[in-house]
Specification:
The chain is mainly alpha-helical. It has helices at about 15-75, 85-95, 105-120. The protein has three helices and no strands. The chain starts with 12 loop residues before the first helix and ends with a helix.
Length: about 120
């Protein structure tokens, strides 16, 4: 009787490397998809935060405008007149003018100042 021996087929190194490379590429692609999903979630969160800041800032501006209008109406309804304001109206005007009443208002500088303040909040 003839003995049969089981011979292993010689492994094909090229095929083995190819399969390993394909598996590695699949893992890399899967990781990339997960990273993109995480990045998308982060962008969505940042969008929500930015929208919240925007809404809060708009509400703050509306309240600020209402306060200014109220203070100016108090001055308008007062018995004193422009150039001869009472102490209360002088204090209100001083508050509205701010710390540097003689300084000419530069809109660009004011805008940059507001942006700086907003960035500090975030």
């Amino acid at each position: 009787m003839q003995k049969l021996t089981n011979r292993k087929k010689p492994s094909n190194l090229l095929e083995s490397r190819l399969r390993d490379n394909l598996d590695l590429l699949d893992q890399i692609r899967s990781d990339a998809v997960n990273d993109i999903e995480s990045l998308t979630d982060a962008f969505q969160h940042m969008t929500l935060v930015a929208q919240s800041v925007q809404q809060n800032y708009q509400a703050l501006l509306a309240q600020n405008q209402l306060l200014k209008s109220t203070l100016l109406s108090i001055i308008d309804e007062c018995e004193c007149r422009q150039g001869n304001r009472c102490d209360r109206c002088q204090r209100i005007l001083q508050t509205l003018v701010g710390k540097n009443p003689g300084q000419k208002l530069d809109p660009v500088l004011k805008y940059k100042s507001i942006l700086t303040q907003i960035r500090k909040l975030g």
